[in-house]
Amino acid sequence: MTTEPPPPSEDDPFKKKPQPPPDEGGGSPYDTPPPGDTTPPPYAGDPYGGGPYGNDPLAGMPPLADSGKRILARLIDMVLVGAVVWLVAWGFNVNEYNVDGENIEYGKSFGQSVIAAVLYVAYDTFLTTQTGQTLGKRLLNLRVANLDNGATPSAQTSLVRALVLWVPFAFCCACIWTAIAGGWSFFDKPYKQGIHDKAAKTVVVSTS
């Protein structure tokens, strides 16, 4: 019995299709330049080293998503799943209250952090594996795609992406990590990837 995830379905409607050869009039501006042309291709500095991505891994894919919309989609997901986390934590009585005189301070216990990590990672992994879209991304017409072929990420890829995104958020540095992971795509070139995208080799594209 093997634990290897199944390969992406050939029926995936988002998977990039082979491009027509240049002599048929469908050449990409990122094709290998003719002999004597010393102009470097626009993606010669591919941070992944060219490899399986070629000179332009984005060819044939929708445009990259706006970073602001990505942040808004993440906030929607945080609110939706956060409400479930609070209800489950309350049901299992793992909320922590510190009473000091007349002041009652609400804190987050380790048990609540575990619940948050499990629910956020499961939510993100499952929905990304199904369609490439969490509820927040679906509302804002965004989708996660493999950088190399545009297909919906596999379960393994989606899990890696979700772990990098949500485990630090749940256990130690929610506000700081959200700002770093979410803000990274504003400055990343040329693929506008978050840290979690780099770990999983994914991008977020627009579906509208």
UniProtKB/TrEMBL annotation:
Its main location: membrane. The keyword Membrane applies. Residues 31-44 have a biased composition (Pro residues). Residues 1-55 are annotated as: Disordered. The chain crosses the membrane at residues 71-92, 163-187. One of its GO terms (cellular component) is plasma membrane. It is a multi-pass membrane protein. Keywords: Cell membrane, Membrane, Transmembrane, Transmembrane helix. Residues 65-201 form the RDD domain. It is found in: Cell membrane. InterPro entries: Pra-immunoreactive, RDD. The keyword Cell membrane applies. It comes from the Bacteria. This is RDD family protein. It comes from Streptomyces montanus.
